[in-house]
Write a structure and sequence with these properties.
Layout: H1 8-25, H2 40-65, H3 69-96, H4 111-120, H5 129-135, H6 140-166, H7 172-202
Helix pairs in contact: 1-3, 2-3, 2-6, 6-7
């Protein structure tokens, strides 16, 4: 990896640019009715941008503090790709003329999913504040291992949310984004697990 990409300010600038570009590039107008403020589509977009933001935060920490080249590279990919998707979700919300945030996590999914979020304050797979704080005390191999341990359930939660919206929406863009999330994050889960197994094997754990 080029040394220029090893500077935190550069990655921050790149991710911000991707969010802006995605907002315009993916913000084309789809046919059909516009989702409303209380729609499944708006709720999904709000929650996914929040969910993605935690993944970006964890990935940027790993990118700066991890030691395994493969995992540092994966972290960079997660930070940049999910920043672009955050920009996409925000562009949808602006286009639809709905609120960017409501504080009502998972209400679009209904029933038990909304109650779970209300009980824990967390969406599926998200790390707690305590887990994040502990992760950010680690460096090197310890950071590598904890990054994977946190990111795998985070991705599983993201996949679960995408599957929920597929059952509840026929909006072309939302369906396409959900299907891509499932495909990409399932692949990353397998990749992360293989690297974790390798690191643990090398360390004799």
């Amino acid at each position: 990896m080029s040394r220029i990409w090893g500077r935190p300010a550069v990655l921050v600038a790149v991710t911000a640019l991707l969010m802006l570009v995605a907002g315009f590039a993916v913000g084309w107008v789809a046919g059909g009715s516009t989702p409303g403020d209380d729609s499944v589509e708006a709720g999904f977009a709000r929650d996914m941008q929040t969910h993605h933001q935690q993944a970006i935060d964890m990935a940027m920490y790993e990118w700066q503090n991890g030691s395994d080249p493969a995992l540092v590279s994966i972290a960079y990919d997660i930070a940049t790709s999910q920043s672009a998707e955050v920009g996409m979700y925000r562009s949808w919300l602006r286009e639809w003329g709905v609120r960017m945030s409501t504080g009502e996590q998972m209400s679009w999914a209904g029933g038990e999913h909304e109650h779970d979020a209300e009980a824990t304050g967390l969406m599926p797979g998200m790390a707690t504040d305590e887990e994040l704080a502990e992760f950010k005390t680690l460096t090197g191999t310890e950071a590598d291992i904890r990054f994977v341990e946190l990111m795998i359930p985070h991705h599983i939660g993201g996949v679960d949310m995408a599957k929920l919206v597929l059952d509840r929406s026929d909006d072309e863009r939302v369906v396409d984004a959900a299907q891509r999330t499932i495909s990409i994050q399932q692949g990353e889960i397998e990749n992360l697990q293989s690297h974790l197994d390798r690191i643990l094997s090398d360390s004799g754990e």
